[in-house]
């Protein structure tokens, strides 16, 4: 920007100057400001306000000692000087090849048409007219109407009489302004992050995730008991889609009295592997949602955006608006609906942004295996020598919801927050449960442990493993921030800055300093930031075939060893089991760990049967010689209540030893019951904690607890005994035998 424009006048100064000027005009009759055409005035500074009559003493009328006057006749004009259009970074590509020789105007038109098609009502004769850009800014953008849909014989709706402004791929700064202006609960935290609220839902709602069952998905997907895909029909999908589109087209964000309908549109990518990149469009009502996806998906360059064309998948996020419970299949006010044939997803009744991220992850769990690519709920990082590790682990949010599903299939899906009688924290509570249970939610460590200052971060949550190696699906990270500290997680702490979305955190009213210990809104406080906010992110986020497969479990029973080396069959057994624990307690204060099992460490996102993904994993691990590990990031020295969570610093030393290869050659001994190989020594970790029996004072309690957990593993795995895992039935037998034995 030129120096001229960096000169700032206060509005008061300006009003004063304008007053003087207009007064002068009144007196002279013939007064004008200089033309405002040359916007860029170079290094000369702002031009002076000029009068026609140079003899007239301006000081007679006003005492302007504010320095260089402004080159604008009105405040509106001055404000328009403040913003300039950025020049394209490269010449438009259209002229390079005969096939995409298309003018900028045509390209704009195509984009408008594509978005117009996205936002069109499929049942009404006309949709809204579209205008690109912010209604608050005049003279921007282009219009398009839905004349091709118009049938004059049928009466039209009011929506056809107005314009919908679409705010296309806005920058974080612009989205901040929209959020702060229009969305209650949006504030700038002292770190520069955008603190916001996700409303009544502060976690995902897997019991409200529905998938259209049609001829194709009937055969391709996993349905029925245990499956995360709750079925819906095409017609109901269209009812919800129409509801969402109508809502999105009716958002009047005006505060001037003149209507100003607007939606946000993001066109972005998924998957850093250029061969298997997917184009996604997100249409949303909230700047928060648009910024979240800006951070979480891969951001296209201006050049890539020119060639964007038609998206491969579109999300309609009308989360502030509920679904209609009179609609078939609807069991609550929330519905997240996926239609693979239409390549669309509709969100109603939840503003939790993670639904978009994980909804798309579900879609990838369908699209990628069709191309022989394995999609994984895992973190991923790479050492200086190119050794890649994957970190699998269930998330606390998933655990919570799956438990509810396990306990009773008859419960309504709504949950509420209650304050625990034990301490000041709030907990989720089931409505109308037979046993009133409260939960403590925690993650297993994918984000925390893949974000490692000594290694390159490829991604923290969603990956693909193809013949080319690994690739991150996303362009950002979504870190838990409950109890976050600068000392323990410096890279995540430092990533919370301007541009980052901070969900549901509590901050000081005045200083806007966030209190990460405060779980008043939820335990599941989160930060979403672009991956390049982590200093050693590997861009592009791809890497060679993994060397180590680390399965993380937060064992609140405290009986799993801090680390064990797994055989291939054991890796498969634990991958299919997908164990972690959370803490649930009855209202009279007894707290007990609850085991949860989520196949492939992410049953909520898989689309096909778990054995399909497991078979692919075992094939890839064998082919590329990867070693499996089981790491307990949970309790030691007793179950939740008597023991303590393993120190993050120790877990990090364990992970270091896996990465360096030193653990591969350590001395091992086998545990009873689970039959796990545990090392006797690791640098930086007290040896006595490596075998959990040493840390329990009550050895009988340890044995009982171990047997109890083993029983839960067995019970869970029973449903898989009828399935073959891959083509090799030997492996299936081995996997079945790799579980606990007692
Ligand atoms: N020993 C430990 N190892 C790993 N994490 C620990 C440990 N002790 C405490 N923690 C905390 O546990 C949480 C782990 O959460 P993390 O965000 O890594 O989960 P995740 O596996 O990425 O889940 P999600 O899929 O929901 O994002 C963090 O808040 C971290 O600070
Ligand atoms: O999607 C979310 O809410 C957060 C997450 O990573 C998970 O639950 O696995
Ligand atoms: Ca995570
Ligand atoms: Mn996750």
Could you walk me through the main structural features you see in this protein, from its secondary elements to its overall organization?
It is a single chain. It contains 19 helices and 36 strands. With about 750 residues, the chain is of the alpha/beta class. The protein starts with a helix and ends in a 5-residue tail after the last helix. A 10-stranded mixed sheet has the order 2-1-3-8-9-10-12-11-6-7, with helices on both faces. A 6-stranded mixed sheet has the order 19-14-15-28-32-29. Strands 4-5-23-26-22 form a 5-stranded mixed sheet. The longest helix has 19 residues, at about 700-715. About 25% of the residues lie in helices and about 20% in strands. Helix 5 packs antiparallel against helix 8. It has 3 domains: about 5-80, no CATH class; about 205-245 and about 265-370, Phosphoenolpyruvate Carboxykinase, domain 1 (3-Layer(aba) Sandwich); about 370-480 and about 525-735, Phosphoenolpyruvate Carboxykinase, domain 3, CATH 3.90.228.20. Strand 30 (about 580-585) and strand 31 (about 590-595) form a beta hairpin. The model is unreliable at about 1-60, about 95-100, about 145-155 and about 400-440 (pLDDT under 50).
Key structural traits:
Phosphoenolpyruvate Carboxykinase, domain 3; 3 domains; PEP_carboxykinase_N; 21% strand; 6-stranded mixed beta sheet; globular; PEP_carboxykinase_C; binds adenosine-5'-triphosphate; binds oxaloacetate ion; 19 helices; EC 4.1.1.49; phosphoenolpyruvate carboxykinase (ATP); 742 residues
């Amino acid at each position: 920007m030129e120096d001229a424009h960096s000169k700032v006048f206060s509005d008061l100064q300006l009003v004063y100057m304008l007053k003087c000027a207009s007064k002068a005009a009144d007196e002279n009759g013939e007064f004008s400001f200089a033309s405002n055409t040359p916007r860029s005035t170079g290094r000369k500074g702002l031009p002076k306000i000029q009068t026609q009559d140079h003899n007239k003493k301006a000081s007679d009328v006003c005492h302007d000692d504010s320095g260089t006057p402004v080159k604008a006749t009105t405040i509106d004009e001055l404000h328009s000087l403040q913003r300039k259009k950025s020049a394209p970074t490269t010449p438009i590509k259209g002229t390079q090849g005969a096939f995409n020789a298309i003018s900028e105007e045509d390209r704009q038109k195509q984009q408008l048409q594509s978005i117009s098609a996205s936002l069109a009502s499929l049942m009404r004769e006309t949709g809204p007219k579209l205008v690109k850009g912010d209604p608050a800014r005049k003279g921007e953008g282009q219009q398009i109407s839905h004349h091709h849909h118009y049938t004059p014989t049928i009466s039209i709706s009011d929506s056809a009489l107005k314009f919908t402004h679409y705010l296309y791929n806005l920058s974080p700064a612009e989205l901040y302004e929209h959020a702060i202006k229009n969305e209650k609960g949006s504030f700038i935290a002292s770190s520069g992050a955008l603190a916001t609220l996700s409303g009544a839902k502060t976690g995902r709602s897997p019991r409200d995730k529905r998938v259209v069952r049609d001829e194709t998905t009937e055969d391709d997907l996993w349905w029925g008991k245990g499956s995360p895909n709750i079925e819906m029909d095409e017609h109901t999908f269209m009812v919800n889609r129409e509801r969402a589109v109508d809502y999105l087209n009716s958002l009047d964000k005006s505060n001037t009295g003149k209507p100003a309908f607007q939606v946000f549109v993001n066109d972005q990518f998924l998957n850093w592997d250029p061969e298997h990149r997917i184009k996604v469009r997100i249409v949303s009502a909230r700047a928060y949602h648009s910024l979240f996806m800006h951070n979480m998906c891969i951001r296209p360059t201006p050049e890539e955006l020119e060639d964007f064309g038609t998206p491969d998948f579109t999300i309609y996020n009308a989360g502030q608006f509920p679904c209609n419970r009179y609609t078939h299949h609807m069991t609550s006010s929330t519905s997240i609906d996926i239609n693979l044939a239409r390549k669309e997803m509709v969100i109603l009744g939840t503003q939790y942004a993670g639904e978009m991220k994980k909804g798309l992850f579900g879609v990838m769990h369908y699209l990628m295996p069709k191309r022989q690519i394995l999609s994984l709920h895992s973190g991923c990082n790479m050492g200086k020598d190119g050794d890649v590790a994957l970190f699998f682990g269930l998330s606390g949010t998933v655990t919570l919801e799956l438990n509810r599903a396990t306990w009773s299939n008859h419960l309504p899906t709504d949950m509420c927050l209650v304050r625990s009688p034990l301490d000041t924290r709030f907990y989720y509570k089931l409505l109308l449960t037979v046993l009133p249970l409260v939960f403590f939610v925690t993650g297993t460590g994918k984000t925390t442990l893949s974000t490692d200052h000594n290694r390159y971060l490829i991604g923290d949550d969603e990956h693909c493993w193809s013949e080319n190696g690994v690739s991150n699906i996303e362009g950002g990270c979504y870190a838990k921030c409950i109890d976050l500290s600068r000392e323990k997680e410096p890279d995540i702490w430092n990533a919370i800055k301007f541009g980052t979305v901070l969900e549901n955190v509590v901050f000081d009213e005045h200083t806007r300093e966030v209190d990460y210990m405060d779980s008043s809104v939820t335990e599941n406080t989160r930060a979403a930031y672009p991956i390049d906010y982590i200093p050693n992110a590997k861009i592009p986020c791809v890497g060679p075939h993994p060397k180590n497969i680390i399965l993380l479990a937060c064992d609140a029973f405290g009986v799993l060893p801090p680390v064990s080396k797994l055989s291939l069959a054991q890796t498969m057994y634990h991958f299919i089991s997908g164990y972690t624990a959370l803490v649930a307690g009855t209202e009279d204060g007894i707290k007990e760990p609850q085991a949860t099992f989520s196949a492939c460490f992410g049953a909520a996102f898989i689309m096909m049967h778990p054995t399909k993904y497991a078979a692919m994993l075992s094939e890839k691990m064998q082919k590329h010689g990867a070693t499996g590990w089981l790491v307990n990031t949970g309790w030691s020295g007793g179950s939740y209540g008597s023991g303590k969570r393993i120190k993050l610093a120790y877990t990090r030393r364990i992970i270091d030893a896996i990465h360096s290869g030193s653990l591969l050659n350590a001395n091992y001994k086998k545990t009873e019951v689970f039959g796990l190989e545990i090392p006797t020594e690791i640098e930086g970790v007290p040896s006595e904690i490596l075998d959990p029996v040493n840390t329990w004072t009550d050895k009988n309690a340890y044995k009982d607890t171990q047997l109890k957990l083993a029983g839960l593993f067995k019970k869970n795995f029973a449903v898989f005994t009828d399935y073959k895992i891959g083509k090799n039935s030997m492996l299936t037998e081995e996997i079945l035998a790799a579980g606990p034995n007692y």
